[in-house]
Amino acid sequence: MLSAVLRGGRVAIHTGLRSWRALSSLVNNGSCRILKSPPLVSLDLLDDWSCSTDQDHQGSVAFPNHSNQLNTALIDGKAIAEEIRSKIANEVIRMKSVIGKTPGLALILVGDRRDCQIYVRNKILACKEAGIRSEVAELPECCSEDEILSALTNFNENPEIHGVLVQLPLPERLDEGKILSMLPLEKDVDGFHPLNMGNLAMKGREPLFIPCTPKGCVELLLRSGVEIMGKRAVVIGRSNIVGLPTSLLLQRHHATVTVLHALSKNPEKISREADIVVAAVGIPNLVRGSWLKPGVVVIDVGTYPIEDPSSDHGYRLLGDVSYGEAVNVASAITPVPGGVGPMTVVMLLLNTLEYAKRFYGFS
User: Fold this and answer.
1) pLDDT tens-digit series, residues 90-100
2) Is 123 part of the annotated catalytic residue set?
3) The Tetrahydrofolate dehydrogenase/cyclohydrolase catalytic domain covers which part of the protein (predicted)?
4) Are 174 and 217 contained in the same domain?
5) Is 190 annotated as catalytic?
6) Does the active-site annotation cover 117?
7) Is residue 15 part of a domain?
8) Which of 187, 188, 190, 300 is catalytic?
9) What is the pLDDT of residues 93-120, one digit of tens each?
């Protein structure tokens, strides 16, 4: 019995590796025409410590010292995402006119968490605006794992679906790892497959898909003219969805990265040393002004809904960063909403488009 299980595991690993090798050979630079981010392997450098031993690291920070809100730049993720989405839509139109095919994205939503419903609704709307076909399987909170796996299998086997996304987090009673393991590597547009994450971490490797939120965060930095190489970056939160892949991606861009989590000692002090802070915890207003040094660039990934009867939707969104305090310290900051959220969605569209182009051999 044990030997059969081990053989099955080896077959799955070898199949995944073959899929990655075959698909990675097809990866083109199409996304580089849309994004500022280059292929990761083009960023790889030899680590040579000899040339840095005599540098004055205390004087290496080049960000200006801002002291009031009027001088703080707003990183408008909504506007940047719209620019990228427009280019994606043009590419979808070109694809349809040349080969008669359209990218397709499938989403699986389990339960009625308000934040998950918001994310899925935004993704469906964005697909429509970009000309990408979308399908959604909505399952109740009480559904079984088999029902989710059945919906997943249907999307996996549909050749007109080029990206499949299971909206996370799932209810705690469900085996998230088991469900996500059913996602084929080539349709893992969220970028959470172990091979994608492993290749993100390793120098000389290029993942098929970079996870959408980290990819969007770095694109915001690049388009805002923020220098990443050699800067001190602090990522607050270490989730598999955002914190971990963001720290890996920033390292690939040669930042000096520190990850803070719930067990970190003196997080406020460590965060105050950063040139770039990425907050991705999901706790509203966790990061106060005292956590930030003057001139820091702040990327706020947090999205936390709170009741607000005066809002059209009955709620409003707060980020992980106390915006009112941060704007008095930071040189640049993303708002919530309108910062990272739209970028996450548009990166999902781009990943879906990229696989559709590979699948049809379209360039």
Assistant:
1) 999 999 999 99
2) yes
3) 75-190
4) no
5) yes
6) no
7) no
8) 190
9) 999 999 999 999 999 999 999 888 888 9
